[in-house]
Write a structure and sequence with these properties.
With 117 residues, the protein is an all-alpha fold. Helix content is 71%, strand content 0%. Helix 3 crosses helix 6. The two termini are 14 Å apart.
């Protein structure tokens, strides 16, 4: 049964336990490229480094490419109500929270695809 992870570390832990971490990276790369936001996380990237690089990318998109950022959220299918609940007063915190929502949604896609294959 799918259970939504409570934080990024638990998400990565579960992905590695299920041997789906590489699938998660591939899904991130695929959806970013669909949104014309070329990003290429190497399959050898560590969870900590992935977390940092994704956070930086989202932070820059919010600041400088807001329309593209919204398009990315649409393509990944991050729930709009979860985005609306975030506090946007601190951009660094917002980017971190949005990064987690993106990872959570991408993990959900990977998990269901693996579970129902």
């Amino acid at each position: 049964m799918y259970v939504s992870p409570l934080n990024t570390d638990l998400l990565f832990e579960e992905a590695q336990k299920d041997s789906l971490y590489l699938n998660l990276i591939e899904q991130l790369n695929k959806d970013f490229n669909l949104a014309n936001e070329g990003i290429d996380f190497p399959l050898s990237i560590t969870p900590d480094e992935l977390k940092i690089q994704l956070h930086e990318k989202i932070y820059r998109m919010i600041q400088y490419k807001f329309a593209e950022y919204l398009n990315l959220l649409y393509i990944i299918d991050v729930p709009e109500n979860e985005i609306k609940q975030l506090d946007g007063s601190d951009l660094v915190s917002l980017a971190e929270e949005v990064s987690f929502l993106i990872l959570k949604r991408e993990w959900q896609k990977v998990w269901f695809r693996n579970f129902y294959k």
